[in-house]
Amino acid sequence: MQVANINDDKRRIMDIVDEKKDEFIEASDRIWETPETRFTVPNSVEQHYKVLEKEGFDVQKGVAGMEYAYIATYGSGSPVIGITAEYDALDNLSQEAGNPDRKPLVAGAPGQGCGHNVLGTGALGAAVALKTLMEEKQLKGTLKLFGCPAEESGYGKAFMARDGVFDDVDAAFTWHPSDVTSVAGGGGLAVIQANFSFKGVAAHAAAAPEQGRDALDAATLMTVGVQFLREHIIDEARIHYAYLDDGGKSANVVHPTATLYFFVRAPFLEQAKPIYDRVVKIAKGAAMMTDTELSIDFDSACANYVPNHPLSEAMDKNLDLVGPLELTDEEMEFERKIQSNNPEGYVGPLTERLKAANPELSDEEASEIANSSMALPKFPLIYTTSTKGQASTDVGDVSWCTPTAQFMAGFEPLGTPPHSWQWVANGQSSVAHKGLVMAAKTIALTAYDALTDQKLLQEAKESYAEQFKGKPYRSVIPAETQPHG
């Protein structure tokens, strides 16, 4: 339900979203049907291009060395308002739409397990709505929609930030699917990622082991060294790894190759980088001990997210204007069926998470919400420096380049995790479509505020300058590293 205290321009923005929502929903559903990962997302971005061409944006393709990144622009002059969009999927999450039980469409294929089909088209819808109003009202300024591939681990926005793509932007906005609606008040971990490949010499493990040099031994020694390193890093840091190549399935062969994929996370890049440097030293030591060759392929990195307070507060007010999702009994029952696949015992931890998100909730109130299928009311904006329960996003790099605000739209079944088949199952539902519309309206309204309210924009810039005083953005991605994979 929308509140009555809203000006004509904002009411018109919401009407435009409603008038054009079918084209955004169509694009979202088509992207869901062709899930693509990391930087190779030709079919996904094509759905954006169809809408942008129809709506008359000037589109620059192939931004920052990424074939499927774009900047869609309308208008000229100041201020420059940015909106970021995503469209990549996740590996091994194929799932039938609308099926509350696990059933992949194609075993091992990707799926939209983080809702980026909805995220990207919600941002697209916001840009279209604001552009339409700018045309109708002849509003001054520049609107830019940034199409960003590879949010999932590749961090397209980090490459864009490294190349100065956001340097002329006065304010930026985005959003993300969630099971709870709230403006992001902080959090997010910086991360550095790299592949460590060891090359040895194959030999018969019994007849001639002395002639071999075992790359798998090197990889194993590296992981052992990292385990000992964990005792000597800050509590908030995290180190994860996976074997991309374990040398093969034969135990009687000295393994000639092995590759590990490492993530190093910390609250800030300046904390993650020295930990990463020590991981590199451990890898070199493992290669030395096993007389193998080491090669390091720096994959990507992203900064922590820092919310701009004035813009976040404006976004919070606009969420109130848009109002919570209004779902039918049938939609609530559909979400409950998906939620029924949550692991046993999830309610307790969920209750604690809800209380952290809204400290004013009593134990009984939090428990009541946790036992429902959806958390429809908006949760309050709470600023926090805690990184507990946080992941990483390349929106962080945007926030270091320009004042930035983002919010979470709670249209996923309560308690279901991101990067799950449950989110894929929900991705073409009428509930997801309503979440898209809510997001498009909220982003467009807040971008309108930044475009037309000089006082708000000045406060946002002053807050940004204070937050980052003496801490200029510095990408840790080497200049020679290009987006790949």
From TrEMBL:
A Pfam family per the record: Peptidase_M20
GO MF annotations, alphabetized: dipeptidase activity; para-aminobenzoyl-glutamate hydrolase activity
Superkingdom field: Bacteria
One GO process term, biological-process aspect: folic acid catabolic process
GO cellular component: cytoplasm
Entry-linked NCBIfam families: amidohydrolases
Name of this protein: Aminobenzoyl-glutamate utilization protein B
Lineage: Bacteria, Bacillati, Actinomycetota, Actinomycetes, Bifidobacteriales
